[in-house]
């Protein structure tokens, strides 16, 4: 596995943005409630809370479609991308640099069509950048926080699939646009974001 590609200084992975709105009072309050003083324990608490307390939209057939971290927190539901936005907000609010990572996966595990899957990487002094996947567990998926080991929800090893090595400071625009256009959890299944090989290259996404 190639090293992760981190192209920006750590400060870029701490910023509040319109989507990662960690300065919003409810997000900040939740981040403070999960703080454990020690960065590793804080990161674990934030990860496990988002993984277990925010329900995956499809697994639980939950509306609305969320995007902004504060909306994910309010409604306690979201697609993987939205859950990664909230986890980034909670970690950034606790001073832990956090970015965004993506895989391209076969939706039905048999080739086309494909869609992106979103998760996070966070920076801890003890280990450097570590990827974590707070998508939410279900039978066949057992992602956990176990640095420096990496346990993601999906392997991304089938033909046409890819796990990108990039750690982005902001979510991909195609992901944000899809979530903002979504009106229902099942309607989103028809418009899941994807990037083909050429588009991935244009975006600077490099497979491992």
Describe this structure as you would to a colleague:
This protein is an alpha/beta fold. The protein has a single domain, classed as C8orf32 fold (Roll). Helices cover 31% and strands 20% of the residues. The protein contains seven helices and ten strands. Strands 6-5-4-9 form a four-stranded antiparallel β-sheet. Strand 7 and strand 8 form a beta hairpin. Helix 2 (39-53) packs antiparallel against helix 4 (80-93). It is globular, with a radius of gyration of 16 Å.
Strand share of the residues? 15-25%
Task: Say what the CATH topology is.
Answer: C8orf32 fold
Contiguous runs where pLDDT drops below 50 for at least 5 residues: none
Number of domains: 1
> What would you call the structural class?
alpha/beta
What sort of overall outline do the alpha carbons produce when their principal axes are compared? Answer: globular
Overall pLDDT score: 96
Characterize the main sheet: 4 strands, antiparallel
User: Helical content, roughly?
Assistant: 25-40%
Strand order of the largest sheet: 6-5-4-9
- Straight-line N-to-C gap: 6 Å
Number of separate helices = 7
Number of strands: 10
Please identify, by name, the CATH architecture.
Roll
N to C succession of SSEs: EHHEHEHEEEEEEEHHH
Level-1 CATH class name? Alpha Beta
Rg for CA atoms:
16 Å
């Amino acid at each position: 596995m190639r090293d992760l590609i981190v192209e920006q200084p750590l400060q870029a992975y701490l910023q509040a943005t319109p989507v990662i709105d960690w300065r919003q009072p409810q997000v900040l309050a939740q981040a403070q409630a999960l703080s454990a003083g020690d960065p590793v324990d804080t990161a674990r608490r934030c990860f496990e809370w988002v993984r277990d307390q925010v329900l995956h939209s499809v697994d639980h057939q939950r509306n609305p479609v969320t995007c902004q971290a504060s909306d994910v927190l309010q409604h306690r539901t979201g697609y993987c991308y939205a859950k990664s936005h909230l986890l980034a907000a909670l970690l950034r609010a606790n001073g832990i640099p956090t970015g965004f990572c993506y895989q391209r996966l076969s939706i039905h595990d048999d080739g086309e069509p494909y869609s992106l899957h979103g998760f996070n990487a966070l920076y801890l002094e003890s280990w450097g950048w570590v990827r974590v996947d707070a998508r939410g567990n279900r039978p066949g998926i057992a992602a956990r926080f176990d640095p420096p080991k990496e346990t993601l929800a999906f392997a991304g090893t089938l033909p046409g699939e890819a796990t990108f090595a990039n750690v982005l400071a902001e979510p991909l625009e195609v992901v944000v646009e899809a979530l903002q256009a979504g009106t229902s959890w099942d309607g989103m299944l028809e418009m899941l974001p994807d990037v083909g090989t050429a588009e991935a290259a244009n975006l600077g996404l490099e497979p491992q």
